[in-house]
Design brief:
Shape: globular
Strand order of the largest sheet: 4-1-3-2-5
Helix content: under 10%
CATH topology: Barwin-like endoglucanases
Order of helices and strands: EEEEHE
Number of strands: 5
Structural class: mainly beta
Distance between the termini: 20 Å
Number of domains: 1
CATH architecture: Beta Barrel
CATH class: Mainly Beta
Strand content: 35-45%
Largest sheet: 5 strands, mixed
Radius of gyration: 11 Å
CATH superfamily: RlpA-like domain
């Protein structure tokens, strides 16, 4: 996964799938493309690149509650 790109990792979605991810806390949204597998930590659904997390406003927190929808 490229930390500078708007990408994400998901366990089952096909590579190339585009998702709109919205931070529930501040309402910020980004479009990411699935290009990796993961996360492998119980309770987590998606791993976002550093660039996506920064645009969503939670880079300093590490995790956030989000909403996902196919874009």
């Amino acid at each position: 996964m490229n930390p500078a790109a708007m990408t994400a990792a998901h366990r089952t979605l096909p590579f190339g799938t585009k998702l709109k991810v919205t931070n529930k806390r501040n309402g910020k949204s980004v479009i990411v493309r699935i290009n990796d597998r993961g996360p492998f930590i119980k309770g987590r659904v998606i791993d976002l690149s550093k660039a996506a997390a920064k645009k969503l406003g939670f880079i300093d927190k590490g995790v956030a509650k989000i909403c996902m929808a196919k874009a």
